[in-house]
Specification:
- By secondary structure, this protein is of the alpha/beta class.
- It has two domains: about 15-25 and about 195-365, no CATH class; about 30-165, no CATH class.
- It contains 15 helices and seven strands.
- The strands form two sheets. Strands 2-6-4-5-3 form a five-stranded mixed beta sheet. It has a two-stranded parallel ribbon with strand order 1-7.
- Strand 4 (about 85-90) and strand 5 (about 95-100) form a beta hairpin.
- Helix 5 (about 175-185) packs across helix 6.
- The chain is elongated, with a radius of gyration of 24 Å.
- It starts with 14 loop residues before the first strand and ends with a helix.
Length: about 375
């Protein structure tokens, strides 16, 4: 509820996810074509500026220091080889998605623009001058380079490997697995972080927008740095619209749903917004900040089935008897069969179907 202080707002919200131990394996054999392409640096920058090559709005943050970025530019100026980049073709868009190499590509954009790592609403911009490089390049910007050095940089070649999923034709889920294998070293990326890069578009943008909805923030608490709150919204919507297609593992089910809906209609986006906000409003009013918690942490399985059950009931009209809803929720949370179906290691098809059935039945007769 809006006037109820969330008891976890000062720290990262705990999530009990029964599907977290599922093995993230590629469930099918893909038919993927790949080819190499050599791009000159100026051509890459122009393609980036025109959005012909897309760096997803959420990928890993730009982490290079100015000295790191300067060293990369210096290598190109000296004619030294640099690591290649990895791109994927976007179906029907005739564009390329950056899977690996965003630090290098952003560095090129920054150097040609003259500003190092610009931030939104940043008043004082940092001029991109080369630092900690050979004396002839020290302190140089792109504009102050000699004509000869500009040509050398403009014409420097960066090799790209470009992949395209040929089969299955339903979606681009292979991009998720390629991205995981190329980027999940060092700081391990979480599934929703990879989805935001691999399946970027209006659908996941809408989920990011819904993540700031006040009733959801009342219940969930502090925004998750690793996007677990956004993943829960995706999980609810995927099971609400597509429970009949559910197959373990949950991770791949969510990948498929996100991939199929990368470019949804406005009608679908409006529908899912209404479904989520109406459902979470009722949960907030009736259950408050302790909703979906068996003990202390939010239980992802309780969240998804209770939300689906509520949404199915709301499809018939508003719920006015909140006291009855509260009582039905309490009874559901005492049901041993239901609790067993929402415990760890219970993401198989029959168990997910059972807990959704129980929650749907529990709320079906509420007025």
């Amino acid at each position: 509820m809006n006037n109820e202080k969330n008891f976890l707002e000062s720290e990262e919200t705990e999530i009990e996810d029964e599907a977290a131990t599922d093995t993230a394996v590629t469930p099918i054999v893909y038919n993927i074509t790949s080819y190499g392409a050599d791009y000159d640096v100026r051509g890459l920058v122009e393609r980036l500026n025109k959005d012909d090559i897309i760096i997803p709005s959420f990928q890993r943050a730009y982490v290079w220091k100015q000295a790191d970025a300067s060293s990369f530019i210096e290598s190109l100026l000296l004619g030294l080889p640099v690591p290649g980049i990895f791109l994927a073709t976007e179906k029907d868009a005739n564009k390329l998605l950056v899977i690996d190499g965003q630090q290098r590509l952003r560095t090129l954009q920054f150097f040609y623009s003259g500003i190092f790592d610009p931030k939104p609403n940043e008043e004082k911009k940092k001029i991109f001058k080369l630092v900690a490089v050979q004396p002839q390049f020290e302190g140089q910007t792109y504009e102050t380079l000699t004509a000869k050095d500009k040509r050398r940089l403009d014409n420097a070649i960066i090799h790209a490997t470009i992949v395209k999923q040929e089969e299955p034709k339903d979606g681009d889920t292979s991009i998720y697995h390629i991205f995981y294998r190329l980027n999940a070293r060092g700081m391990i990326l979480k599934p929703q972080e990879i989805r935001r890069a691999a399946f970027h578009g209006p659908f996941l943008d809408k989920i990011t927008e819904l993540n700031s909805y006040s009733a959801w923030r009342d219940i969930f608490g502090k925004v998750s740095k690793r996007l677990k709150d956004e993943e829960l919204i995706l999980r609810f919507l995927a099971l609400y619209f597509d429970a009949a297609r559910y197959k373990k593992p949950m991770e791949e089910f969510l990948n498929n749903f996100a991939s199929r809906n990368k470019k949804p209609s406005e009608e679908f986006l409006n529908d899912l917004e209404k479904i989520f906000t109406n459902t979470i409003d009722v949960a907030d009013k009736a259950l408050g900040a302790k909703a979906f918690r068996v003990v202390r942490a939010i239980n992802a399985a309780v969240f998804d089935c209770v939300m689906v059950g509520l949404a199915r009931r709301l499809k018939r009209g508003k719920i006015t008897d909140l006291a009855n809803l509260q009582a039905s929720y309490r009874e559901l949370m005492k049901n041993e069969e239901f609790l067993k179906a929402t415990s760890k290691g219970t993401s198989d098809e029959s168990t997910v179907a059972l807990r959704i059935y129980r929650a749907t039945k529990a709320f079906s007769q509420i007025k």
